[in-house]
Amino acid sequence: MHRLLKRQMKKILGVSNFEELPEDIAKFAKAIENTYESFDIDKKLLENTIIINTEELNELNLKIQLENELRLKGLIEQAPYGFVIVDYDGEVVDANKFASDTLGYEKRDLVSCKIESLFKSRENFEFQDLRDKIMRGEKISFDEVMKTSVNSDIPVEITAGKFIIKETPHILIMFQDIIERVQAEKMARQKQLEIENLNKQLEERVQQEVIKNLEKDQLLIQQSKMAAIGDMMGNIAHQWRQPLNNLSIAIQDVEEAFLFDELNGNYIEEFIENSMSNVRFMSKTIDDFRNFFKPTKSKVEFKLKEAIEDILKIVSAQLKNNNISISIDGENYSVIGYPNEFKQVILNLTNNAKDAIIENRVEGGKIEIAISDSDDEKYKLITIQDNGGGIPKHVISRIFEPYFTTKKGNKGTGIGLYMSKTIIEGNMSGELLVKNENGGAKFYLSLPHVVKLKN
Cα–Cα distance between 87 and 69 in angstroms, integer? Predict the structure, then answer.
């Protein structure tokens, strides 16, 4: 710096040494020169200090970087996961002990091999595609199967990301053994299959049981009908007694008419008409009896009042013989169901009412049947009320159980009311209930209706 000062003085003042200047100016110039010399020394010291500090800083950075790498390698080495470091070309440059132990390789054999050679399938593991995604900053996770040194399979979960080593991008692949999870998932799938098979078997068994129950119900219905044959025969006997008596009287009268010379065209015509009327009545009774025992194969539309009246034709004579009146009131609604089975229900309920009246020796016994609308507009209601004393309170909740009967001795089979409830609720989508009202039992039958018909 002081040399530059001398050059400027020579150029401006025309002298090359400070001694050639006047004393005052020479002193000032000398002071400036000393200042510049001191500045040069300080500058060199500063430059040397910067160089030394820069070298120390670089050494410190290298030391920190080395310590970080060693610490990271230590963490990777001790981690309970497999770590494999791969360069840009897919070559393994490093791996931790867990990785080499899990895959059954010596570390020296694992390093330098191609990463793709460690995987069984390349459906998910296409290295170039994986590398491109990672270099774009994506983090990748997927399940794969890795191969061991003895070519056995290990299911693993892969997580991969970018990893910088000495300013050079690498790929860090972490994997963990998921064989327990795979086995658990396999067991879960097996359990699910077992549950599905069990559910299928249960469904099949339920269907079989439903079919068996339907068959049993049909058998019980037939048994119930067979049990009613005795009563029906009694009803037929009562129905036939009067026409048979009429025929007997008419036949006997033919002989007397012949003796008294009363046989003529009018007598014969009247005799034939009366006799055929009795025969037609008896034949109709046989038809009603036969139709009653013919099962209905499918649901049909039928009229409630007409179906009930068909039964009353069969039972009215026996009821009359026991001084029991029976009446039916209401409109002739149509419902959907099995008409013959419905008739059996009416027969069961009227027979039970008749038996209760007879057993309790009720004078002026009566059975009242009414057809009306129900609270639910989708249904029609049939009620059957008797004055036979009602059902004992301690058994009223059990009367619809199979083989339960309140009748003494061998008079009851215990299947009539059970089958009645099965027919109404199980087969005809209705409802059958009972209550004790007005000195007797009152049964409530609800059936889905079709349309309202005129009488």
Answer: 16
Cα(35)–Cα(1) distance, rounded to whole angstroms? 9
SS3 call for 33: helix
3 state SS of 143: strand
| Token pair for 426 | 């199980």
Q: How far apart are the first and last CA of the chain?
A: 138
* pLDDT at residue 453 in the model: 43
Distance CA 328, CA 304 (A): 11
Instruction: Tell me the one-letter amino acid at 227.
Output: A
What is the C-alpha separation between 112 and 97, in angstroms, rounded?
15
The class that CATH gives domain 79-177 is: alpha beta
Domain 210-448 has CATH 3.30.565.10: yes
Angle at CA of residue 310, ends 390 and 433, nearest 5°: 30
Question: Is 173 within 8 Å of 84 (Cβ atoms)?
Answer: yes
Q: What is the pTM of this model?
A: 0.46
Q: Do the beta carbons of residue 156 and residue 178 sit within 8 Å?
A: yes
Look up residue 138 and give its two tokens: 């994506």
> Which token pair is 433?
């209930």
**Per-residue model confidence as pLDDT tens digits over 318-375:** 888 889 999 999 988 888 888 888 888 898 899 889 989 998 888 889 999 999 988 8
Distance between CA 409 and CA 302 in Å, rounded? 37
Please list, in sequence order, all residues whose beta carbon lies within 8 angstroms of the beta carbon of residue 420, skipping any fewer than 6 positions away: 344, 345, 348, 349, 400, 432
Count of alpha carbons within 13 Å of 193, Cβ hemisphere only?
6
Q: How far is CA 250 from CA 89, 135, 244, 245, 279, in A?
A: 123, 119, 10, 9, 13
Residue 425 phi, psi (nearest 5) = -90, -45
Determine which helix (DSSP H) or strand (DSSP E) holds 92, and give its type and residue range: strand 92-95
- Indicate the helix (H) or strand (E) that contains 245: helix 179-259
* Contact call for residues 426 and 217 (beta carbons, < 8 A): yes
**DSSP for 40-106?**
HHHHHHHHHHHHHHHHHHHHHHHHHHHHHHHHHHHHHHHSSSEEEEE-TTSBEEEE-HHHHHHHT--
